[in-house]
Amino acid sequence: MIGFLKGRLALKLPPSLMVDVNGVGYELEAPMSTFYGLPAAGEPVALYTHLVIREDAHVLFGFGTESERRLFRGLLKVSGVGPKIALGILSGASVEDFLRIVEAEDIAMLTRIPGIGRKTAERVIIEMRDSVQKLAAPSAREGAALGPAAASPQGEAFAALVALGYKPPEVTRLLKAADEPGLSTTEIIRRALKAAAKP
Fold this sequence. Notes:
This protein is an alpha+beta fold. The chain has 10 helices and 5 strands. Strands 3-2-1-4-5 form a 5-stranded antiparallel sheet.
């Protein structure tokens, strides 16, 4: 099993991308949530991966965070949900949004995602209800030096805030509040903590 890839981003053409790992080009499919965090072509990148073996192909999927991969794997266990639908869900909702959708049993929100009908949405909510807490729990690897932004100030700030005890969904929200190009890691953390202190 291939757990992750580190290399240079050779090509990005949603939903496909290629990572050059020491001269070998790995083709992957990724959700839009991962594409938003990708660097420019030619830049270093690291992705968590999941390999799906079918009769006619071996398909490698790439994810920017461990929580995205956990959600993808959780969705594959839902009756009638394959990799294409799972990618569609991750492209249409962040992990945090998906957790809120399941907790609120918001079928209407799920059916807005292309390829998701009412029956599929109902099945996803029913079958994912018990596992959402595991998906929400921060992983020991979350924010570790692996994600595409791991070497970036945003990635370092994410890891630092998780280490401080903030949950990943909360960290994502705080980092959005501190999102400004060119900020150092310390400045991002300072602004995120300031945003967390606001009532």
